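Possible regression after last week's pipeline update?

I re-ran a chain I had predicted before the update to compare outputs. Posting the input and the new output here so someone can diff against the archived version. Not blocking, just want to make sure nothing changed silently.
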Amino acid sequence: MQMTGRGLRVGVLIALGVSGFSYAQVIPQRVSGGTTGQLPYSATGLIDTKVGNAFYRGSGAVARDPRLIFTCAHVAFDRGTWASSIGIAVGWNARFDATNYTQMRGWRYFSGYAASALVDDSSAQTFNLDFLVGYRNEAIGPVVQARAAGAGYLTNPSIQKMVLGYPSTRDFDGVDGAFFMHRTGPFSGGFSQELDAYHGFAGVSTGEGNSGGPVFEASSGDWILAAILVSGSRNSIGVYAIDSSAWQLSSNALEALGSAPSPNPKPDPKPTPGPDSGGGLNSVMDELIAIRASLVDRLTQARRIRNPQARSIQLRRLRSMLLDVNYQIAFLRQ
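New output (post-update):
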C-alpha cells in the first residue's frame, strides 16, 4: 500500500518519523453529542450481532433506503457460522453499550465470503467480498445517499473523505473508544486499488469495532456513502468500495421487502450474490459444502507443518470446524 498522507487537511494530524521522513497521521476523534442529530452522523450506527453464543460489535449506516443498512460481512461471521441476529443502534453515542438495538429482518451477502474467510480472513480476496446489507420492513432511521460506484470518488485525491464508526480502541495509540461515535477526517488524498473493490489508504487509522463503518465522499458538497471499512492497522485502512455487485445486493434486499429497486448498473459477475437468512436450503447447503471442501484442503496443508506443536493446534482447530460444518450439513439433510 502506498503512502498517501500528503495533502491531508482536517482531523487530528500527528507527525510520524518513518525511515527518515515524516507524514501526517489522521486518527479517529469522538463526535460531540449535538452532532449525532445531523446527517451523516444520524444515519450511522453501532452494530450488534450474535454468532453462536457470542456477541460482536461493529459499525454501519442506514443507506440508499431507510429500511437498509450497509456494513461488512465479517461482523456477522465467525469460524464457519453466520449470525443469528443483527441489530443497529442508529446515532448511538455514549460510554455504555446501547440498550435498544433495531433488529434486522434479514440480510444479504456474497456467497463466496465464508469459504474465503475460512482460508484466510485477512486476505485481499476475503476483503474483496466483505460486504453485507441488512433489511427491515420499517424505516430504521435517517438515511444517507450512496454511490452505486464509489471507487472513482475514493481514488480521486482532491475529493474530501471521512470515516465514521465505533472503534472500541484506537489502533494508533490504544485509547479506549467506549461506545462513542468517532469521526476520522475529513482528509484528502487518493485510495489505492488493492484488488477489485478492495482499496487501501495509508496515513489514516481507525480501530477494532469500526469495521463496517461508512466511508463518505464530499464531491457534491454533501457526504455520500462510497465505501465500507473492512480492515485497518496502526497507520492504514482498507475499504470495500461500493460497486455494481454490492449495489445489486441492496437491490435484492429491496426486492425481499416487496419493493421495486431503483435503477442500478449491471452486476459485476465476479462475486455471486448469496442468500440471506431466508435464502433457501439449497443455497445454504451449497455454501456449507464449499466450506467443507475448503476445510479438507486446509487439513491437508496443515499436516505438512513441521513444528509439532503448531501442527497439532492447527489440526485440532480445523477438525473442530469441520465437525461443526458436517453437523450442519447432516441437520439440513434430515
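Follow-up from reviewer: compared with the archived run. Residues 1-24, 262-280 have pLDDT under 50 and may be disordered. Marking as no regression found.
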